[in-house]
Design brief:
The chain is α/β, with parallel strands linked by helices and about 280 residues long. The chain has one domain: Alpha/Beta hydrolase fold, catalytic domain (Rossmann fold). The chain has 10 helices and 10 strands. The strands form 2 sheets. An 8-stranded mixed beta sheet has the order 1-2-4-3-5-6-9-10, sandwiched between helices. α1 links the parallel β3 and β4. The radius of gyration is 18 Å and the shape is globular. It starts with a strand and ends with a helix.
Length: about 280
């Protein structure tokens, strides 16, 4: 495991690399997580490729977007594209969790010529908003921006206080919470502070609707795999029921665990990822 940094436009992205194989895998974490999400699955494992696990902008140790910018989901596609250009490789495997899984699918739709395979972990399709709710979505986003803009930075007395707060919204063990959250924390004179950009918690001003989601999936022409946690999020299963018929090449498997099943059933998940890569003939 080694640290790396790389440019994505004006931003510096940070992350971790694992393995040293000829094939390249880019691993994309979920919302408010970071590249530590993939440590349980990759650290110490026998790998058949070189993995680049990034912190998305605003997450972990990566730069925040500029003060006048916001976090639109589509901009993560540009970040992945810039990363591939900086790495100087022709094609990559994409492995994404949750929001990162959705970004992997959208990237494969836009740039299939750069993708060998896509493995989505507990994420499928894209988040959608019905067309008749587009005004409501935008109004909430603007109001939320003003709330965040005027909010003072928050400091915590200890890392354990942050761990306990995260435990309220996840089924991860405290050990895994600590592993994940430590990369999102920094010690200051005032106390422990999150390194994640507060603007990440804004409502999105724009989302695709269902017909657009279907159009995106129709453009995916590379092998795709979905890994579900046996106790994962219901919306992932709901999206599978809605959109699986639009995929040309989709493999679906289930492993033990919840939404972060790649951290909880790390060996089982990695076996599925490796098997799928071998099955596609890419490794």
């Amino acid at each position: 495991m080694q640290s790396f940094s790389i440019q994505s436009g004006e931003l510096t992205l940070h992350g971790l690399t694992f393995g040293s194989g000829k094939e390249v895998v880019i691993a994309l974490h979920g919302w408010l997580d970071n590249c530590h999400s993939f440590i349980p699955m990759l650290d110490g494992a026998q790998l058949y490729a070189t993995w680049y696990c990034i912190d998305f902008p605003g997450h972990g140790k990566s730069d925040w977007r500029s003060a006048d910018a916001h976090y639109y989901f589509a901009d993560y596609i540009d970040d992945v594209y810039n990363l591939i250009l900086e790495l100087g490789v022709d094609k990559v495997h994409l492995v994404g969790h949750s929001m990162g899984a959705m970004a992997a699918g959208l990237f494969a739709s836009c740039f299939p010529q750069k993708v060998l395979s896509v493995t989505m972990i507990e994420g499928f399709g894209v988040m959608t908003t019905p067309s008749d709710e587009v005004v409501k979505q935008l109004r909430l986003a603007i109001l939320k921006r003003h709330q965040i803009r005027n909010r003072k930075p928050r400091f915590y007395d200890s890392k354990e206080q942050v761990y306990k707060a995260r435990a309220l919204s996840t089924d991860l063990s405290m050990e895994l919470i600590a592993l994940l959250m430590d990369r999102n924390l920094v010690s200051t004179e005032q106390g422990i502070q999150l390194t994640t950009d507060p603007k990440l918690k804004n409502h999105s001003g724009f989302r695709f609707d269902e017909p657009q989601c279907i159009a995106i999936i129709n453009e995916i022409n590379v092998p795709c795999q979905l890994i579900l946690g046996s106790e994962g999020y219901p919306f992932v299963v709901d999206n599978l029921a809605k959109y699986s018929c639009y995929f040309k090449d989709l493999n679906v498997v289930e492993v033990d665990g919840g939404h972060h099943c790649h951290m909880q059933s790390n060996e089982q998940c990695l076996l599925q990822v490796h098997a799928f890569m071998l099955q596609t003939g890419a490794c």
